[in-house]
Write a structure and sequence with these properties.
With 455 residues, the chain is mainly β. It folds into two domains: 3-149 and 266-452, 6 Propeller (Neuraminidase), CATH 2.120.10; 150-265. Helix content is 2%, strand content 43%. It has one helix spanning 12-21, and strands at residues 3-4, 54-56, 65-71, 77-82, 91-95, 102-103, 113-118, 124-129, 135-140, 148-149, 166-172, 178-183, 191-196, 204-205, 214-222, 228-235, 243-253, 257-264, 273-279, 285-290, 301-306, 314-315, 318-319, 328-333, 339-344, 350-355, 361-364, 371-379, 386-394, 397-405, 413-416, 425-429, 436-441, 447-452. The strands form eight sheets. It has a five-stranded antiparallel β-sheet with strand order 1-11-12-13-14, with no helix packed on it. The chain has a five-stranded mixed β-sheet with strand order 23-27-26-25-24, with no helix packed on it. The protein has a four-stranded antiparallel β-sheet with strand order 2-34-33-32. The longest helix has 10 residues, at 12-21.
Length: 455
């Protein structure tokens, strides 16, 4: 399962509103030991202490708004900041070898960039605006290198009579290969799924040109053809609003004719379509199947698991503590084949569950003390540890806190708040489940890029 690199919406827009309504004196007490590190200039520490809470990931400038988007198995982080004045371009940054964060060079002077993923080998992916404010997916080979623009498809790819004009990223695997899209002149309605092999800015077409498929995931390991496999969702032009999950594998015939071939994930009887959300290195995939007219006892949306691209899906039927079959969606699968799910309670509230798909029943993850609802973020490989964000009642005020849970634990753990602030939010967990990354306001209301260095 690759690291996700969806376009990150600046979260301070939400959290600053929350902060205006919250009295920071009502912040929940941490059950963890919190190490407070100021975000000043290029300061940064990564103390290796058991049970540590949120600590500063540092920032490449004394910015008001900073966020950590990704963290790898070595505790190396990537993110972005806005200037202290709140005016000016986003600044991408990375911290490798648990050192001081380094600003990443932009594509053009005074234009913004965002770093979304740092791979196991230190390759960083994200996006930048060029001198004409056109967005391109980019990679940085090192903190000191100029960004490599990930090029769009050229003239005569498929049947196009003009080259594509922009690119976007959707994920990066642990070797530095990036999956995303190449966009034509018509914009979002004129895109093609592509990959850029590690270290290359040249695209390889994955979906059919201009089919508007949505890139979802990329495997860390390469398939038999020497390129990673890709999961994607593709619209059905004959049935607007219908989308089909596909797995694309790179193959070669006689060692000469190479390219991606996609397999539509099977749809169970009684369902209109299925979308894929995540895939692991074994090509086990998870997603959600939709029924336009559910039968009695059947949910309109059900989490689905495919053991292979050609297998009939296993549908999630029950969740502990819930009656009947709740509406559910699968959000992620790790390389152990275990699944993070969100479901709707009978009261219509979103909660999350842990699913081992050898069964059709999932284990509801306990709410935090005062918990109202939960939203999934990710599931790690080594420990199956789950990180999520929770809405909780603290003294009559509603706060959002990052939280985590490991299978077998009787309770989830509140990651708490940072430096006197009133909320926190996870964005990522490292594949080995050792490090977490996110965003949290401090007592001055500034948004801080934060990490957890040991759960």
């Amino acid at each position: 399962m690759s690291a996700d690199a969806q376009q990150i919406v600046p979260l301070w827009l939400t959290i600053e509103v929350i902060n205006m309504a919250f009295d920071t004196k009502c912040s929940a007490l941490l059950s963890l030991v919190i190490a407070v590190v100021g975000v000043v200039g290029m300061t940064h520490t990564m103390p290796a202490m058991a049970g540590s809470g949120w600590v500063s990931a540092g920032a490449p400038q004394a910015g008001k708004q900073c966020e950590t988007n990704s963290i790898n198995n070595s505790g190396e982080e990537a993110g972005y900041c806005l200037p202290a004045t709140d005016n000016g371009p986003e600044v991408a940054w990375v911290s490798l070898n648990q050192g001081a964060p380094t600003k990443l060079a932009p594509l053009a002077l005074n234009k913004g960039c965002q770093a979304d993923v740092v791979a196991a080998n230190g390759m960083i992916s994200g996006y930048c605006l060029d001198a004409h404010d056109v967005q391109y997916a980019v990679t940085w080979a090192s903190p000191s290198s100029a960004p490599t623009k990930l090029a769009p498809l050229p003239l005569l790819s498929g049947l196009n009579l003009a080259p594509d004009v922009a690119t976007f990223e959707a994920g990066e695997n642990q070797s530095g290969a990036v999956v995303g899209g190449s966009t034509g002149a018509a914009g979002a309605e004129d895109s093609t799924v592509v990959i850029w092999p590690a270290g290359s800015g040249n695209p390889i077409e994955v979906s059919s040109y201009g089919d508007n498929c949505d890139p979802v995931d990329i495997t860390d390991s390469n398939g038999s053809g020497g390129q990673p496999n890709v999961a994607m969702d593709c619209p059905d032009p004959a049935n607007p609003g219908t989308s089909y999950g596909k797995v694309a594998q790179y193959t070669c015939t006689l060692g000469l004719l190479c390219g991606y071939n996609a397999t539509v994930l099977p749809i169970p009887a009684g369902y209109a379509d299925c979308e894929v959300e995540s895939m692991n290195n074994a090509l086990q995939a998870v997603g959600t199947c939709h029924s336009q007219a559910p039968a009695v006892g059947q949910a309109q949306e059900q989490a689905a698991y495919w053991a292979s691209p050609t297998s009939q899906p296993v549908l999630l039927q029950t969740v502990t503590g819930q009656s009947g079959t709740p509406s559910s969606e699968a959000d992620g699968i790790n390389n152990n084949g275990n699944v993070l799910v969100e479901f709707q309670t009978s009261a219509g509230v979103t909660n999350i569950a842990y699913w081992v798909p050898s069964s059709t029943s999932a284990t509801a993850i306990p709410l935090l003390s005062g918990g109202l609802r939960d939203w999934p973020v990710d599931i790690s490989d080594t420990s199956n540890r789950v990180v999520f964000n929770s809405e909780i009642n603290v003294g009559g005020l509603v706060e959002e806190h990052g939280a985590y849970w490991t299978p077998g634990a009787a309770q989830a753990t509140d990651a708490g708040t940072y430096n006197g602030g009133s909320s926190s939010e996870f964005n990522a967990i490292s594949p080995n489940g050792v490090y977490g990354a996110g965003i949290a306001p401090g007592n001055l209301g500034n948004e801080n890029s934060v990490v957890i260095t040991a759960f």
